[in-house]
Write a structure and sequence with these properties.
75% helix, mainly alpha, rod-shaped
């Protein structure tokens, strides 16, 4: 299920809860709507609202931290790619095939991680970009001097670091928010909006205010889910670092 669909479900459940509360307020006996009853309900809902607000805040912070971490890893990977290209350039003309393969691997990685078609899922598997043949190509170089031996060793280390970062991005691709957690959060929000509607006068101003509140909560959930999946959806990590590096490879 996409983040937008989940946010739409949150909005629908919140609005349905508010409307159900307004409907129940007409059926309940007058004694259930006295000020002392309202105070008890408001205390309980205040506690629930505090818990739900804290959970939403922690989820936003956690998702933003994960998003920033993967963006930083991507920038570091782009820097390592540029460094590897310069190391191979310093090795000599014998590394031309390896540099060409590096350029093709980066171009393939960009196409797979940020596909042109919105219907296509990003491919983060490091085995899909030809990283292993590049490592083999560098390892097959035969140094003729100590300088070339040092450069080759450094190039192998940088290539290994690139592969490790790509594997880390692949391992982080799955959602870190369990479905059960989302179901419980939606239930809390539905109960909250039900309590809002229970004691709210059924006029246009109140209904609009409740709908705006429901929209705000649902967009918070949308933000969390979008940040949790940085290679899909609306808030994708930028491909600019890798594209800028690709433009200078082989020069």
């Amino acid at each position: 299920m996409t983040a937008i669909a989940t946010a739409a479900i949150v909005f629908a459940c919140a609005v349905a809860g508010a409307l159900l509360g307004m409907f129940l307020s007409r059926l309940l006996p007058e004694g259930h709507l006295r000020s002392d009853s309202k105070d008890v309900v408001r205390l309980g809902m205040g506690l629930l609202a505090t818990i739900a607000g804290m959970v939403l805040g922690l989820l936003v912070a956690s998702a933003k931290g994960s998003y920033d971490a993967q963006s930083s890893e991507l920038t570091q990977m782009a820097a390592n790619v540029a460094l590897l290209d310069r190391l191979l350039a310093h090795y000599g003309s014998e590394s031309k095939d390896a540099r060409d393969l590096l350029r093709m691997s980066v171009a393939r990685a960009i196409d797979q991680m940020w596909p042109q078609g919105r219907s296509q899922a990003p491919e983060l598997n490091p085995a899909a970009t030809g990283g292993e043949p590049l490592y083999d190509k560098i390892q097959a170089l035969t140094p003729q001097s100590d300088a070339q031996r040092f450069v080759r060793a450094d190039a192998l280390k940088v290539a290994t670091d690139i592969g490790r970062m790509r594997s880390l991005l692949f391992a982080q691709a799955g959602s870190s928010i369990p479905v059960v957690f989302l179901v419980i959060l939606i239930f809390w929000l539905s109960v909250l909006f039900l309590s809002f509607g229970l004691f709210a006068p059924p006029n246009a101003t109140v209904i609009v205010a409740l709908m705006v509140s429901a929209l705000s909560v649902s967009t918070a959930v949308l933000l969390i889910l979008e940040l949790d999946q940085p290679f899909t959806g609306l808030l994708q990590v930028s491909s600019a670092p890798l594209r800028a590096t690709l433009a200078h490879l082989g020069q």
